[in-house]
Amino acid sequence: MHIAIHASSDLPIYRQILRQIEEAILQGRLAPGEKLRSHRELAEQLVVAPLTVKKAYDELESLGYIETQRGRGTFVSAEPPGRTPLEQRERLKAAATTFLDLSRQAGLGLEDAVSILRQAHTEQIEKVEP
């Protein structure tokens, strides 16, 4: 599995790792029972501190996505938590609320906030489509 770290992102590196592994599990790119690289191996590959990867792994484990088996390694949970459409919608709503709160604190109106979302969407598409 390939993980891309963006140093210029506002998202902390451990969160970038966490989200990419979580999405890979939810999308089936990482199968239940599949072994993950050790946090040291992944840290070496990504050129980040091992504790950064460990923090992402610890949070993924607490969320039920992965499990560590002493002496064997870290694996995708046999039954990783799924997200129902309602859970996905609630998660998006919470993120939208946070975004709108930040926009309001910055003195921006709804139209400016929507413009920022459109710009981010365009940039995201450009990263995916070379």
What can you see in these coordinates?
- There is one protein chain.
- By secondary structure, this protein is mainly α.
- The chain folds into two domains: 13-76, Arc Repressor Mutant, subunit A (Orthogonal Bundle); 85-128.
- It is built from five helices and three strands.
- It has helices at residues 13-26, 39-46, 50-63, 85-105, 110-128; strands at residues 35-36, 66-69, 73-76.
- The longest helix has 21 residues, at 85-105.
- The mean pLDDT is 89.
Please summarize what this structure is.
This protein is mostly helical and 130 residues long. The protein contains five helices and three strands, in the order αβααββαα. A three-stranded antiparallel beta sheet has the order 1-3-2.
List the helices and strands and how they pair.
Layout: H1 13-26, E1 35-36, H2 39-46, H3 50-63, E2 66-69, E3 73-76, H4 85-105, H5 110-128
Antiparallel strand pairs: 1-3, 2-3
Helix pairs in contact: 1-3, 2-3
Proper CATH architecture of the largest domain: Orthogonal Bundle
Number of strands: 3
**CATH homolog superfamily of the largest domain:** Winged helix-like DNA-binding domain superfamily/Winged helix DNA-binding domain
What percentage of the residues does DSSP assign to strands (E)? 5-15%
**Overall geometric form:** globular
Percent range for helical residues?
55-70%
User: Could you name the ranges where pLDDT drops below 50 across 5 or more consecutive residues?
Assistant: none
Number of helices: 5
Order of helices and strands: HEHHEEHH
Q: For this structure, what is the CATH class of the largest domain?
A: Mainly Alpha
Q: The CATH topology of the largest domain is what?
A: Arc Repressor Mutant, subunit A
Mean pLDDT figure: 89
Termini distance? 20 Å
Output the strand order for the largest sheet: 1-3-2
